[in-house]
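Appendix B. Extra example for self-study. Work through it before the problem class; the solution is given directly after the inputs so you can check yourself.
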Amino acid sequence: MIEQNELLTLLVAASVLIFVVSNWRDVKSLPVANICILAFLVLFLGLAFTVLEGLLWGAVFNVMEHVCYGLSSLLLASWVWLVFAGKKGWR
Amino acid sequence: MAVKLILCLACLSFGVLLVTLGILGARWKQALYRDSRWLLAALLVVSMLHAVSNFREWMAVHHVAMPLEDYFLLLLPAIWGCFFYTFVQAQSRTKLRRSEERYRSLADDVLDATAAGICIVDAAGHVVWINEAFGEFFHLERNEIVGRRRTQLIEGRLKHMVEAPSVWAEQMLSAGERNTVAELECHILPGVSREERWLECRGKPIETGLYVGGRIEHFYDITERINAARQREILLVELEAQKAELERFVYTVSHDLKSPIITIQGFVGVLKENLRVGAHDDAREDLGRIERAATRMERLLAELLDLARVGRDEGTAEMVDLADVVSEGLEMVHGAFERRSVSVTVQDGMPSAWGHRARLIEVFQNLVGNAAKYVDEQTQPIIEIGAKQRDQDVLCFVRDNGIGINPRYAGRVFELFEQLDPSQEGTGVGLAIVKRIIETHGGRIWVESEGNGRGSTFWFTLAKPMSHGCGQASLDQLAPSAEKDPV
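Solution. Structure tokens for the complete assembly:
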């Protein structure tokens, strides 16, 4: 069963994804942009899996959802670390 | 177990959060912009809280804070979106700032480096920008001009710097009012900290861009061009004068050389006739006349050659003592003085002058010889010679109490083959040679006489070597200053 708030969250994330794609050149100018964008994409996947788990393969998507959320948080933390503490500073 | 893991993860998350916030503070000026940084911090907090919450949910550990899970989930993409949005906006602002800097650099550096003066006026008639060259031309500061009305600038400032200000200002204002293409010239008069310049003003409307409807005016410095044109005019006049002089010279030479030839031709015919009839005494007289005509022609040619040689290949000039020069000149015409009992007075303390010794002797020889030749038979002939040092030159004179010169003919005595008294011996080349020598020495020569029977004074100047900055100057270097020496 699809939760209304989960769907709303996915729509918000999709909008952000569209914004990122349409402003790709600017977003790519972030330092170590790949990790940052990957963190968001993984979060987006997690949100997608959250919605999907209500439709089919609930157990599988639930695991993948939680893995994605955790991975997204770690990627974000890594990116912040690389940018602000590591040598891959702001160009 | 799960509770412990959650607690560990929560501690780890907050640790990362605190470290990150510390880093954010430390790298404040180098990293993201202010709003992006706060959003990033918020994103990090929410992300970590969500991770904890997510892990707790995954481990099926229920907690009192469970309803927060949904809020975290909704907040996360929203904060990501805000972060990307603010970053993209910040990037756009950076690009805009860099673009502005680039254009400002283009305007301030590149246009300031151009030699042409540029003035940009907006559609409302206010000066929005001038470059350095414009400021330099009119001795104006950019800060005091920018923002003022163009009419105010022209009427209040520029008008007072140019020649024919009313006409120029009217033309400029008229072109500005109609905002049409206009080309004018203006002559900036010299002033305090302002050089004299000739400018070509080209104004045209701005048809595109920020100042559309405004006007851009270029001012090109054409001073060199104007000066070159003036110099060309002077040279053309000189050339015309030289051409006329050459034509006169050719005519005079051919005319005066023709005279002895006609004499020779005439007496050759008479000689033949006398020889045919056996009149040997008459024939001898004819031969004598032919010989005198040939001698005169030879003398004419020799003096013309001498005239042509003046100022050419004469080596370097030197400082010469005019007392010695006068003395040698007098020595060469000593015979004429003896015959006519001429009394000669030479001023004491004659200065030195710069020139060719032999040529200067020739000058005095000719002038003194002339003075001795044209004596008044009724009076005791007296010749005075003198010279004095002046600021820019040495002024010399040869004065006599002879027959004098009608002031009407004062200018003609230096012309070739001109003789005031044709009955006197001579060719009429002497004073022409004197004039040429003086001119090649960078001086001038003129004659003053109160009229017939009142004597005459020949004045001439000789340029000082210091005024030319030369130690061993040739006459070629001295000669051009002849145009500048005041009489």
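Self-check: Chain A has a mean pLDDT of 85. If your reasoning did not lead you there, revisit section 3.
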